[in-house]
Each structure stands twice: as C-alpha cells, then as structure tokens.
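Tutorial, part two.
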Amino acid sequence: MKWWLYLIGISCLILLLAGSYYAFQQKEIKVVRVYGYGSSQDEYSILTSLGGANTIPCTYEQYNTLSDDSYINISYSVIYEQNRWFKNNQHTLKLLRFEREFPNDQNKQVQSFYYRLVGETLEQVNDNTSVFTRLYEKRESNNNLFDVIPQSIVISRVGDVMQARQLVQEQHPEFLKLMNETVIDDSVLGNWKRDDYQQAYSSASPEGLLLKDIIKREGSQ
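Running the prediction step on this input gives:
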C-alpha cells in the first residue's frame, strides 16, 4: 500500500513540475516604439526608451533596416516576443515602418505643439495575434512636422481595421483616448463615418477641433 502511495506522490510531483515548467515557458507578444539602435561587439539591439536604458536584441539585417529612423518624418515600432513571467529572452519579430510627407501648409500663426491623427493600420503578426496602430503627427511652430508618433497595441487576430478598432473599444477603451490638442485628419473621419464608429472626445481634444481653433486658443492665452 505504501508503495502505491509513493508512486502516486511521485507522479503528482512530476505532473506539477511539468505544469510549472510549461507555465514559466509561456511567451507573450508586445509592441513598443523604437527610439534608436546600437551595437557592441557584433551584438545588435533596438532602443525602446529615450536614453537607451531599455533595449531588445535584433539581427544585423533588422539593425540596418533602422538606418533612417533618425529622420523627422519616419518612425518605427518593434513587435517582439518575450517570456510572459520573467520578461526576458526577448526576440524581435517584426519592425513596423511609418513615414509621412513633410507638410506644405506652413502657418505662422501656429506657435506651439499640437497633434494630428492621420491614420489607423493593422498588422498581422501570426495566426493568433494582430497589432493595431494609431498614427499621429506632432506639429510645431509654423505648422512644421516635429515627430511621427505610432501608438500601437497587441490584440487577438482580426480581419481589418474596423474589427480591430471595435475590439480595442470593447477591451481597452483607454487606448483610444486622443492625445491633447488633436485634430482628426479628414481621411480618418471618413473611415469612422463609414464604419459607424463613435470616438470618445474630451475637453482637451473636443469633437470637431480644427487648426483655427488651436490658433484661437493660443491667441487668447
């Protein structure tokens, strides 16, 4: 009898250890903006924070892809995989490149920063995962382009941008909050109307905000 109890105990322990090993080997997919790239002794990395404190390993080919990342009108996001629990063993899966034309609508009345939401995109990562991105332009004085800002989120795989936006609205509504002082591009508004999407606005980015409204606000300050 004791022998069988011993075998049962050993079997349970093996199952527990196997389950724990499997759980701790689980992976997760993340996405973050790229802030540069670096190399050291034939090892290449992507910088994912200002100042380079956080990095993700990458291949030489991926490293070379980022050669134009310093351009004002170009920005990248990196999709990577890591251990779900220990946040280590990071592996770059994809680089997303975003480029905007330099604006030709200069305006001397613009005296400070504001944002333009200029696009929404969907990237398929694998059979289970997609990445939804909202792309902003940051404009500065004289209405010049200062930065291209991708805001991305990992979601369950969906078929198109409309489905992605709907899923994010249901599960992560905070992601869809507009940046302060955001003007919505006409192409984005057209897509929202087609998809019957209702954006949540705020006093910092009210519905129908136009550049002339921002100029008026600046003039009253």
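The beta strands are 27-33, 36-40, 43-47, 55-58, 74-83, 91-99, 114-124, 129-139, 145-156, 182-184. In part three we will examine how such features are distributed along the chain.
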